[in-house]
Amino acid sequence: RGSRSRSPSWAGRQRSPRSPGRRPSAVSSTDYDAQFEEGLELLEEAEFEAAIECFSVCLALDPNAFEALGNRGAAKAMHGDLAGAFTDFDAALGLNPGASFAWESRANALSDLGRYEEALSDYAEAIRLDPSEALHFMNRASTLAACDRVPEAIDDLTRAIELDPLSTLALTRRADQWARLGRLEESLDDFRRALALAPGDPELHYELGRMRTRSGDSLGALDSLNRALELEPEAGPAYDARGVVCWQLGRYEQALADHTSALRRAEGDSERASIHNNRGLAHWPLGDIRGALADFERAIALDPTRAIYHHNRGRAHADPDFPSQDLVRAR
What we know:
mainly alpha, 70% helix, 0% strand, elongated
């Protein structure tokens, strides 16, 4: 989603850390529990190295603490150490094969490696052990979606919502899958339900704005994106998305300003290339063909693989007068 805040190795997946149970009497529960809780907090804050250290201290105090192994494995996976993560997951499951969260965590790592069938097998075991855990269904849905098994992903997300009706994440993920099937009304409805639960979440307003753009509701999209930027003025993707809507509404100067704002906040060459392409399209109807060509050239330099950037540059060279058809935006 718009913030780009997800960790690289765990993008699009929800973690399920677990709190410690009763510790053996030979272990200081105060020391263990303090380290474990700190590890969970660090894991949620994406401080993965520090979280790994905390769980390692827990394991020094109690080598049989399967929950510390499982959570250290999750931290290692999110830190990019998948080999170390699998070692920890396997050890946790060896100590307690009934730990559903360890099956789920291993499934997450397998899915990140593209080993989808193995991941789905582990998710199935996690669900068998604890069919009341919404995260098991939500994370399996991510893998099903990656396999283009969209209706099954929707079924899992629907079950997750039934188990956790307050989950805005499950609602927005289901909205994305409805959109993949072209069922935009269902998608919009899920985004609205999520916003009713979290009206102050700028990412939800951003996502609703994008979906309204896709459905042809430009004015509604503009309202949503304005609200997103009121709540989070530094959200670069929201500026770019609003620029697209302004272009559709013929507000080219505002589109140009928004794409320029987005460029100042962009992350990575691919994102910058897309914004340059969009800004080029805003220059064009204002009669600034040189500015348009400069942006198309920059988009191609940043990402020469996108055919649309070459197409737009070719059209600008061939027909400096702004055409009303055949322009495709990179999204």
